[in-house]
Amino acid sequence: MDEGAHDTMMLLAVIDQRMTLLCLGLSSLAGVLAGWWWITVMYWPRNDEALPGIELNRRKRVREASSLFNALEPVILPFADKLEHTPGSTAQTMAKIRKTLDIVALGFWTPGEWWAVKYVEGLFMGLAVGMFPLLIGAPAVLGLVLGLGVLFGWPQLALASEVSKAEKHRRDVVYQLVYGLDLMSLMMEAGAGTFQECLQAVAMEVPDSALGHEFSRVDARMDQGSTQQEALNEMDERLLDPDIQAMVLSVNTSEEKGSKLKDTLGNLTEQMRQRRIQWLEKAAEEAKVHITWPAMCVMFACLILIAGSVILVQVAPTGKLPTTAVP
Fold first, then answer.
1. How far apart are CA 262 and CA 197, in angstroms?
2. Which candidate among 41, 62, 133, 175 keeps its CA 20 to 30 Å from the CA of 52?
C-alpha cells in the first residue's frame, strides 16, 4: 500500500471517530435538554386558583385518570384547544369523541384533551417502535415508517375501542330495559314509592349493569336539581335508541297529563316484549333461509363420508376396487 492511500485511510478513520464523538455529544445534549424540558413542564405552575370550582374538580379527575396528562398538562392543554377549534374533519371527530366519552362515563374529559393525550401516547410509542429497527441494524426508513404509523394509528385505534365500548353499552341498556321497567311497574303498583325511588331501587338492584349505570346517572342528575324530564331527555340524547325514546316520551307524557305512571310503564313493557317477540320470529324465519346452503354442504359432506366408507370396506381385502367381469 502506497503512502497516499495510507494517509487517506488514516484521515477517514479520524473523521469517522470525530463524527462518532459528535453524534454522542449531540445525543447527550439532546438528552439533557429533554430532561430539563420534562422537569420544567412537570413543575410548571398549574394556576388552579384561577379555575372555577366545577372546572377545577373536572381537571382533578382528568389528572387522576391520566398520569401523562398530569405530567404534561401545560403542553397538552394548548394542543387540545387547537384541536377543538380546528374546522373540517377534526371538528367532526371532536363531536364523535364527545358523544362516545359521554356514553362510556368519561364525560369529564373534553374531546380535545382526550384526543391530545392519545396523540402524545402515540408519539412516545412511535419513538420506541421507530428505534427498534435501528437497534437491530434495519434501514432507518423502516423505523421512520413504523414510528409514523404508530403515531397516527394509535389515536384511531383508541377511538375505535371506545366507540365499540359505547355500542356495547347501548345494546346492553336496551336489552335490560324491559326487565327494569317491569320491576318498576310492579313496585309502583305495590305502592313502593315515586318514580325516582323506583329508579334508585333498580339501580341498586343491578349496580354493575349498563342499565344500573344509566339509571344511577339519571338519579344523580335529579339529585343535582334537574327535573325528571330534563334528566330523562339527557339519557335519550345520550343513547339515541328507539326503545329509550319511547320510554322517555311515555313517562314524560304521563307526568304532564297526570295519568297513572304504573299503567304507563306496564303498557310500555308489554309493547317492548311484543316487539322483541316479533324480532325473534323474524330472525328465526331469516335463519331458515340463511341455513339452507350450509345445510346442503353438510349433507353433501356426510354423503361423501358414507360412500367413502363403503368403498374403503370393499377395497380393504384386495387393495383394488371391485369390478364386474365382462361375459
1. 13
2. 41
**CA–CA distance from 317 to each of 306, 313, 324 (Å)?**
19, 8, 16
pTM, 2 dp: 0.72
Per-residue pLDDT, 302: 85
Find, among 267, 271, 266, 265, the residue nearest to 252 by Cα: 265
Q: Which of 164-173, 189-198, 307-316 has the highest mean pLDDT?
A: 164-173
CA distance 81 to 90: 12
Cβ neighbors of 149 (< 8 A, separation 6 or more) are: 126
Question: With contact defined as beta carbons under 8 Å apart, do 214 and 104 qualify?
Answer: no
What span, in angstroms and rounded, lies between the C-alpha atoms of 182 and 190? 12
Contact 101, 162 (CB under 8 A): yes
Residue 63, Cβ density class (10 Å: 0-12 exposed, 13-18 middle, ≥19 buried): middle
Looking up cell 360412500 gives 307
Kindly write down the DSSP assignment for every residue of 165-210, as one continuous string: HHHHHHHHHHHHHHHHHHHHHHHHHTT---HHHHHHHHHHHSTTSH
250 in Cβ contact with 264 (< 8 Å):
yes
Cell numbers for 131, please give them: 428505534
Domains located in the chain, CATH noted: 31-167 (no CATH), 173-273 (1.20.81.30)
Q: How far is CA 202 from CA 10, 180, 207, 305, in A?
A: 84, 6, 8, 55
> What pLDDT was estimated at residue 121?
92
Average pLDDT score over residue span 166-193? 88
Q: What are the Cα distances from residue 235, in Å, to 1, 12, 220, 246?
A: 86, 73, 12, 12
Q: Residue 241 in contact with residue 174, Cβ under 8 Å? A: yes
| Residue located via cell numbers 295519568 | 259
Is residue 72 within 8 A of residue 120, CB to CB? The reply is yes
- The alpha-carbon radius of gyration of the chain (Å, integer) is 33
| Euclidean distance between CA atoms 207 and 225, whole angstroms | 22
